[in-house]
Amino acid sequence: MTYLIAFAIIFFLAVIVVQIGKLTELAARIRGEEVVERSSSNTQGIALVVFMVVFLVGCVWSAIYYKNQMLGYGPLTSASAHGFELDGLFNTTLFFTGIVFVITHVLLFWYGYKYRQKLGGKAIFFAHDTKLELIWTAVPAVVMTYLVAGGLITWNNIFPTLTAEDKFLEIEATGYQFAWDIRYPGQDGKLGNKDFRLIDPGSNSLGIDWNDEASVDDIVLGGSDKILLPKDSTIKVRITAKDVLHNFYLPHFRVKMDAVPGLPTSFIFTPIKTTQEFREQLRAYPEWQVPADPAEPKGKQKWETFEYELACAELCGKGHYSMRRIVEVVSREEFDTWLAGQKPFYATNIRNTDKDPWAGKKLFDYEIKARGFELRSAVARYVDDTTGTLSSVINLEHVFYKTGSSDINDDLSKHELANLGTLMGRFPKLRIEFAGHTDNVGDAATNMTLSNERASKVRDYMIAKGISADRMVAKGYGQDEPLASNSTAEDGEKNRRTELRIISK
Ligand SMILES: [Cu+2]
Question: Rounded to two decimals, what is the model's pTM?
């Protein structure tokens, strides 16, 4: 019904327009056609000139008025090293296109006025003018060559070739509908391999290859975490996409590159201002000295709430806008501290699950470091404790045995035992017991023997490393002191353990 009414309205409007047209024609015939046409030509010619002036003045005025809000001008100068050259390129282009813009608009509207219909006016026809053709071919050709060559030189300058010897931080951004996964290399500085065939939406959405040891310390940021970048460091972003085209865009750093499924791209840039420094830069301008939230005039000012941002600059679907992420640039020291505090994806999601190719085979550097710190602080805490409330039992999590035997797996256990040796040196009054425990699989007496043997092997190991035998005792508890119910494989694993029990300190 609504459509029908709308159609009827349009139809009747069309009829009215046609009728008015016929009436005007009749009126013109009565008054003399030429006079009417000439007077309307005059009015239109003058209107064209007025429009030209208002339009051009408006263009210049708005450019000046909004100067401090535009990237590249006022406080919004580049936050990356290469950005200044890129802005220069844009300004050069703007200079030439600006000249052409003004000239063509002046001519367009001025000729509209100059050649309006006049009494006795006659058109001139000319088919060819070599000089004119030469000018309008040669001038644009020279200007275009200059701009294109300048663009190519700038592109080569801002896109250095990095070799393995160069120091840079390589991170990876994977776009998908509708977020970015940002991966950082861990302590080794290397991003591990990926293979799309390994993608598993539940446990490995990026398809990281855990067999590659460079992968196990990689850090994957959650969908809404701030992206931290260190100031004054060369950053290479490896850019990929999983579904459709996205675009990795950091406007303040003049970084913009397509994220193409199946075709990794990259961008290299160096942030030169921390978020805080950029805010200070904005602070000097009145446009930024206004309340960030107009509803709260006494709240924070606009410059105080400024954040760098990552946006997707490709219309990739209806949730496109939600790909915005906050980017924070901090000092190198702050960045290193932050990165060291991030848990590797492998450690929290893959380690010791059935997806872990390294379970029981290898301990990684960051695990050894973290465990060393844990053991040292646990012992030191107990020794320094004056309240007497701390437990004297510390689980030796990194002491492992060969399967079904009491022989120590030296490769996996040496770090834990070396740390323990150092602690025995640091706290010379420490007397300890090694307490062996098993799960409840098999016969209780056999388990008792096994736990006894295992505890003794640890003691022997420490004696061989030079720790005095009278400071250590070894005792087996078999399956008598389980930590968990033994009903699942994981519980069994918890129960099979060697403890350090501090006898005196
Ligand atoms: Cu997108």
Answer: 0.72
